[in-house]
Amino acid sequence: MDDSDAGAGQAGQAAPSRRKDARRNQKALLDAAAAVFVASGVDAPVRDIAAEAGVGLGTIYRHFPTRADLIIGVYRHQVDACADAGPALLATSPSPHSALGQWIDLFVDFLVTKHGLAAVLQADRTGFEALHAYFLDRLVPVCTELLEAATAAGEIRSDIDAYQLMRGVGNLCVGADSDPRYDARRMVELLIAGLRRPQH
Questions:
Q1: DSSP character for 198?
Q2: Which among 70, 100, 169, 191 has the fewest CB atoms less than 10 Å away?
Q3: 0.90 cut: is pTM over it?
Q4: Which residues bind DNA (predicted)?
């Protein structure tokens, strides 16, 4: 093998490593942006996000050229995290009903921390509809899996549809951030407790 072959091999090994680093950097950026958006809303200065992530402004703009790109990135990132949590909770929780309750808690976190998303994306109806479709495609199957596990364990009634449950939880969360007297999480807790099968 000559030097050019060795160089090509090293370059080939470096490329996946660079891609892995880029993915890790992007995840750190999205985590930082999500934290800043929750604390300050989607109009927070990009420099605050850069400071939270420990990177320069140029790095953010390289990944996300516009604020809308960044908001969409955060939204998809949070949907993915919520989707990935379902199977993990099923594997580690004491019961499927407990896993369902913890997952719904994460879902509520997601719903009440999307500050200003709809307003920012209103002008792009097609883009917003695509995001909503992504949300349903990723999360409805996870909720279905959790419900089926709890039903199979005899913990909850069997006539519950994942989409309807998620829609109901969403409706309970409407306005939660604008009325200090309303505790959406408590209402959702009561809803999930109400899924229990009656004990005879």
A1: P
A2: 191
A3: no
A4: 45-64
